[in-house]
Amino acid sequence: MIALAAVMCVTIGSFSAERDSTATGAKLIHMVGADFKPGYVFPTHKFLRGTNQAQKRIHTTLSGSLKYGFKFSPHTQTGQMYPYAVQGIGIAYNTFFNPSELGNPLAIYVFQTSRIASITHHLSLDYEWNFGASFGWKKFDEERNPFNRVIGSKVNAYIHLGALLNWQLSSNTQLRAGIGISHYSNGNTSYPNSGLNTIGGYIGMAHFFNSDKHTPTVAGTQRHNGFEPYFNYDLIVYGATRKRGIYLESENPMLVPGAFGIAGLNFNPLYNFNPYFRAGVSLDLQYDESANIEGHLANQYLPADPKDLKFYRPPFSEQFSAGLSLRAEVVMPIFSINIGIGKNFLCKGADTNSFYQTFVLKTNITKHIFLHTGYQLYKFKEPNNLMLGLGFRFNAR
Hints:
By secondary structure, the chain is mostly beta strands. 8% of the residues lie in helices and 51% in strands. Strand 10 and strand 11 form a beta hairpin.
C-alpha cells in the first residue's frame, strides 16, 4: 500500500507535466471528501453465524472514510481525455461490532472514481474502487481467540467496488449515494484465510477546489474521435509467498509449517478498442512451491502437532502450470483494472488442474513500466495467492 502511494506521487508528476500547447492555469484540481458505509456481512463461516465467544451472529458492519483526491485540469491532455476521473488516497475506520474477536481495523487505500453514464445534467451514474491494506485485526489464536478461523493476520488486503449516483449540488460540491461490495483477506500469506465479505450502502460528500474555473472542453471529444485502435503487449513478472493448510484426517485443516514461494510470468497482448478499454488473451505461467504437497506426506504416521509435518518435494510437473486467460482492462489515468478468467492447459494434480480468476491493479510508473498488484482465485471461490511484481508495456502510446 505504501509502495502504491509512493508510485502514485511519482506518476502524478509525469502526468501533470504533460500539457497541451494551449495549456493554461493549474494542472490539478484537488478534492476532499467523506463517506459512510453501513453494510451486511456475508455469513460464509460458522464463526460469523454465531459460533464465537459472544455467541451472536456477526452480520453488521459500519465504516467511515476521509479522502484526498485530484483530477487533471481540462487544460492538460490527460484531463481532456478523462474529464471525470478522480484518484487519490483514503483512510477508513471499520467496525464489525465484535472488537474483542475481530478488532476495529483501519484501512488505508488508493481509490479511483469516474462516470459510467449521465442521467440528467446534474445526476450521473459513477463507479468507485478502493484497493489497499487494513490494519488492527484481531487474528486467530488457539488460546486467546480460538473461534476466529476467518482472519489469520493483523494486516489484510482491502478491496472495494461500488456503483454510485452522483448528484452535482454545485460546480464544486457533489452528493454521492449507492451500493458496494468489500473483501478483506491476506492472500494466503497467513493462516487461516477464509476472508470476510460485505455488501452495503454508501453515502458521501465531495468538494472540489476551483473546479468552476476548469470546465471540460470539446478537445477531449476530438481526441477520442481521432483515436486509432492498436495492440500493446504487457509482460509481467511477479512473486509472493503463501501459507498452506491441508486436510488429512480431520474436517479442520492442518497448517503446514513454513512459507512457500510463488513465481509467475504473464504475457498479455491487449487490443485497445478506445482510450478507456482494452482486452485480449494472456499466457500465464506459474510455479507454486506448495502445490500438490498433500499427496507427498513423508511422515509414517500423522503427527499430533502440525509443526512435525514433513513432505517430500513434489516433482516440478506438479507445481508448475501454464494457462490461457481472457483479460479485460479498464484504462484510466495512473491506474488500470485488469480482470481475467482462465484455465490451465499444462498442469498435473488437483491443485493446478482448475479454472482460475485474477484481479489486477496496474499502477503506471512510466509510459512503459507499471507496478503489478494482483490476486488469484481458483474455482471462483478459493483464495490462491497474491501476485506482486513489475510489468513492461511494449508498443505503448
